[in-house]
Each structure stands twice: as structure tokens, then as C-alpha cells.
Write a structure and sequence with these properties.
The protein has helices at residues 17-30, 81-94, 96-104, 122-131, 143-149, 156-170, 181-188, 219-222, 244-252, 270-280, 296-301, 322-328, 342-350, 361-373, 377-390, 393-419, and strands at residues 2-6, 34-40, 59-63, 66-71, 110-115, 135-139, 175-178, 198-199, 229-234, 259-264, 285-288, 305-308, 333-336, 354-356. The chain is α/β, with parallel strands linked by helices. The protein folds into two domains: 2-203 and 393-419, Rossmann fold (3-Layer(aba) Sandwich), CATH 3.40.50; 214-390, Glycogen Phosphorylase B (Rossmann fold). Helix 3 packs parallel to helix 4 (122-131) and helix 9 crosses helix 14 (361-373). The longest helix is centred in the C-terminal third of the chain and has 27 residues, at 393-419. The relative contact order is 0.11. Residues 15-203 form the Glycosyltransferase subfamily 4-like N-terminal domain. This is WcaI family glycosyltransferase. Residues 218-389 form the Glycosyl transferase family domain. GO terms for molecular function: hexosyltransferase activity.
């Protein structure tokens, strides 16, 4: 197949949406498909364009067999709601020259658009209409719903406009998919889809990300003793997780020299977290940059407890992607989730982590105490077993490819029927 992907994030970003879209593109290319992507310069989660790409204009490179068309765009130093909107629309405008070439060039068999940002679905939708190409719209989170629930956009008229744009896109897609059962239900509740929303979960390469002994972890490199208890958060430092709780919990353990907190990552919320650490004069919290993918198993093996936190208002609007790697590494995850949500139900059903109430310092501290004093072997074993059974990269992407091929076959049948 000739496949076009459109996503603001792509490899070599190490976390978030770009990681999964990059792996998907590379996997499809390995199966013999011709894959192109229109994307931006890598910037996430640091919110700073990577050094290699700074100052670059429009250009094309090849990554793992995928032709990657890069666009320059606006990346704010400090992320606010307004600046984020400008950031996202700047990518849409910057990508127009590539879309003009696509419109005038040879027809693609399918277009895959990955959201967020949700509004980038407009250009693929127009291309789909003009060239009669099936559009697959994949939702990594429900951005407009989340902006409303988190109070990021308070103007009701503007929120209604965003929902109208989203509705326009969703109604015209051949396939809409998302990453959890709860999100599938929320998309279905919009009552605009021409066909049922598909579940296309995030995956993990369970052969690469696997349990390692403590001796193979990063403890020696970081100067951490084997007896220290390490609480780890790794990933994007954004708004939807409520990460200030980590610093409040660290304050509670300030006099415990054997308990330390590690924060690996970057994002719009990092400055505030660092300010809190300085204000409380804490010495038990250390910040580090994200680690290369090949060191991820070693990083995960460093921790006694892994934190997977999000706010109540983000329930079933986003599913923490970091959880897949934690499960594959056989980690003990401390997960904040609301009962009845997909995240809560999956963790509870498979007994693969410790569940706590979101946005509660007391609940977080109680969860940490539980994880550090009880035998967590069962959680770790269940986590690894779940990852191998349900999150296998090859199995999930094979199912995705089959659906793409089915979509192509359906289009060919319609074309032949019209011809007859």
C-alpha cells in the first residue's frame, strides 16, 4: 500500500505520541509498504526543537525506511493555552506546501492522521474528500474534551467551535480508533461516527523492554545504593498528571534518608516542580533528562515504585502511555485512577498495580508506604504477564495492518462496482 501519515509528533521523539507513530511507520515500512509522513521538527517533551533540527526549514529525510517530510513551526518556550493553539495551527499552515504536492501527486491508498492536535485532521479530511482516499483518524487523547474538563479553555463559544470542527472531521472518516475501552465509549457517545470506533491500543516491544536485575539497572551510574528505596516518575511533565503531588509526598519523606524520588523527563510543568523542590529545600528529589530507548529497561529496573499519575478530570480522556513500559519491565506501578474508568478496571482486574485516589497527597503517601512494606512480587509478575499477552507490539501492529488492508479492499470493491 501507499500510506500517508500526518502527525505533529514523530521519531526521534522518545516519549508520547511521536514514539508510537514513529514505531508504527517503521513497522509498516518493514512489511513492504510505501510510507510517507508529513510532520514537524522533533520537540517533545522538552518543548524545544532538538539541536540537530534547529534552524532547519522544509526538508525531507529517511528514518527506518520511511520518507519523512519536516516542517518548521512555532514552539513556545513557556506553554500556555493560547501559545499551544498558535503552536498547533502553525504546523497546519507550515505543512500546506507538502499537502499541495500530495493533492496533485499520485493517489495514496490510505491516509492516517494521529491526534492530538485534533485540528490537524482538517487537511487530511479535505484530501480524503477531494481524492476519494479513506482516512483513518487515530485519537491518542480526546484533546477538546480534556481542554474543557481541565478548564484550559473557559470561553464556551470557542469550545463549541472546537467541538464543531471535531465533529466535521469525525463524520468523514472511514475509520476512527483510540487507545482504551473507556475512550472508545466516549468517542461513541459523540454520536457522529459513520462506523464503530475501533480499539487500537498503545503497545510495547516486550522483547526489548523486559525485567532486569538490580545489578543491571542505572543505580551504579546514578550513585544510588542497593538499599535505597527509589520512587520513579518518568515521562512528560505536563498539566494532566497533577505532578505537584510528587513533591508534596517527597516533603513528607524528607527525614527518611533511605527514600528518594527520581523524576526523568521534561515538559511545561518542570519549572514549577523544580521551584517547589527549592521552596521546600528538599534534598531527596533529583531531576534527570529522558534516557535513550536502549537504556529504558535499565532505568525502569532502578525503581522500587513507579508513579502513574493523572488528574480526575482527565479520566478516560487520555491513557498514560508510560504504563506499557512499566508493565513490560515487571515494575510495581502506583496508579491514580477513578473507579469505573478503563485504567482503574484494567489494573484492578489483572491485579498488576496498586490503585490510589487521584489528586490526594495522603493517598499517594499511603500507596508508597504499601508498596515499600508489602511483598509486591505478585503485582510485578501480573504486570509482565499482561504486557506479554495484551500489549505485544507485533500482534497489535499486525491487527492494524490487517484493518488497513481490509479498508483498501473495501475501497477497491466500491470502485469496481461504480465502474460496472
Amino acid at each position: 500500500m501507499r500510506i500517508l501519515i500526518y502527525d505533529i509528533n514523530y521519531a526521534p521523539e522518545l516519549t508520547g505520541v511521536g514514539k508510537y507513530t514513529g514505531e508504527m511507520g517503521a513497522w509498516l515500512a518493514q512489511q513492504g509498504h510505501s510510507v510517507r509522513i508529513i510532520t514537524a521538527m522533533p520537540y517533545y517533551p522538552e518543548w524545544e526543537i532538538h539541536d540537530r533540527y534547529k534552524g532547519a526549514g522544509w526538508f525531507t529525510e529517511t528514518i527506518d525506511g520511511v520518507t519523512v517530510h519536516r516542517c518548521p513551526f512555532y514552539v513556545p518556550k513557556k506553554v500556555t493555552t493560547l501559545k499551544r493553539i498558535l503552536h498547533e495551527f502553525s504546523f497546519v499552515l507550515s505543512s500546506l506546501p507538502y499537502w499541495l504536492n500530495v493533492l496533485l501527486g499520485k493517489r495514496y491508498d490510505a491516509v492516517i492522521c494521529v491526534s492530538p492536535p485534533f485540528q490537524i485532521g482538517l487537511l487530511p479530511t479535505l484530501y480524503s474528500i477531494l481524492r476519494n482516499v479513506p482516512l483513518w483518524y487515530h485519537l491518542q487523547d480526546l484533546q477538546v474534551d480534556m481542554a474543557k474538563e481541565l478548564g484550559m479553555i473557559k470561553n464556551k463559544t470557542f469550545v463549541d467551535l472546537l467541538f464543531s470542527i471535531e465533529k466535521f472531521i469525525l463524520k468523514r472518516c472511514a475509520v476512527v480508533s483510540t487507545i482504551s475501552e473507556g475512550m472508545v465509549r466516549k468517542v461513541a457517545d459523540k454520536n457522529v461516527l459513520p462506523s464503530p470506533c475501533l480499539l487500537f491500543p498503545n503497545w510495547v516491544d516486550e522483547q526489548v523492554i523486559r525485567p532486569l536485575p538490580r545489578t543491571a539497572s542505572l543505580r551504579s551510574e546514578l550513585g544510588i545504593s542497593d538499599t535505597d528505596k527509589m520512587i520513579l516518575y518518568s515521562g512528560s511533565l505536563g498539566e494532566k498528571q497533577g505532578l505537584e503531588l510528587i513533591i508534596e509526598a517527597a516533603k513528607h519523606y524528607a527525614l527518611r534518608s533511605d527514600i528518594r524520588f527520581l523524576i526523568f523527563g521534561s515538559g511545561g510543568g518542570k519549572t514549577r516542580l523544580e521551584s517547589l523542590v527549592n521552596a521546600y529545600q528538599l534534598t531527596n528529589v533529583a531531576f534527570h533528562p529522558l534516557q535513550p530507548y536502549e537504556k529504558l529497561s535499565a532505568l525502569l529496573a532502578t525503581a522500587d515504585v513507579h508513579l502513574v499519575l493523572q488528574k480526575k478530570s482527565a479520566s478516560d480522556l487520555v491513557l498514560p502511555s508510560k504504563l506499557t513500559s512499566i508493565l513490560a519491565a515487571g515494575g510495581c506501578a502506583l496508579v491514580s485512577a477513578v473507579p469505573g474508568t478503563t485504567l482503574y478496571d484494567v489494573v484492578a482486574t489483572h491485579q498488576m498495580g496498586i490503585l490510589i485516589e487521584p489528586e490526594s497527597v495522603q493517598a499517594l503517601i499511603a500507596g508508597i508506604d504499601k508498596a515499600l512494606t508489602e511483598d509486591t512480587t505478585h503485582y510485578r509478575q501480573q504486570a509482565r504477564a499482561y504486557a506479554r499477552q495484551y500489549l505485544s507490539k507485533d500482534e497489535i501492529l499486525q491487527q492494524f495492518e490487517q484493518e488497513l488492508l481490509r479498508l483498501q479492499g473495501a475501497e477497491q470493491e466500491v470502485t469496481e462496482s461504480v465502474a460496472l
